[in-house]
Specification:
This protein is mainly alpha-helical. 40% of the residues lie in helices and 4% in strands. It catalyses: L-glutamyl-tRNA(Gln) + L-glutamine + ATP + H2O = L-glutaminyl-tRNA(Gln) + L-glutamate + ADP + phosphate + H(+); L-aspartyl-tRNA(Asn) + L-glutamine + ATP + H2O = L-asparaginyl-tRNA(Asn) + L-glutamate + ADP + phosphate + 2 H(+).
Length: 98
């Protein structure tokens, strides 16, 4: 299996618009080469009769069913508010208008 070169890492960095120093290129090239080698080894192990998965355990929907229930009246909702105005919470202004 051919190894990934420093020039290929530099080319990928340019494509991704990532600026890498010479030291970083020298450091990353062997690491990326090792990652590619290990991915190749995992691909060899995968058997054809095993379906691809995204999770180790099956996922189930944990949402409850929608039920109509009575909601609070505006007065009940605003009963603990420090200030209310026109059936809404009143909060201090944080932006100045021109």
């Amino acid at each position: 299996m051919p190894s990934i070169t420093r020039e290929e890492v530099a080319h990928l960095a340019r494509l991704a618009r990532i600026e890498l120093s010479d030291t970083e290129l020298d450091h990353l090239a062997p690491q990326l080469d090792q990652i590619i080698t290990l991915v190749g080894q995992v691909s060899q192990v995968a058997a054809e009769d095993i379906p691809p998965t995204s999770h180790a355990l099956p996922l189930t929907n944990v949402m409850r069913a929608d039920e109509n229930v009575p909601c609070l009246t505006p007065e009940q909702a605003l009963s603990g508010a420090p200030a209310a105005e026109e059936q809404r919470f009143r909060v201090p202004r944080i932006l100045e208008e021109d």
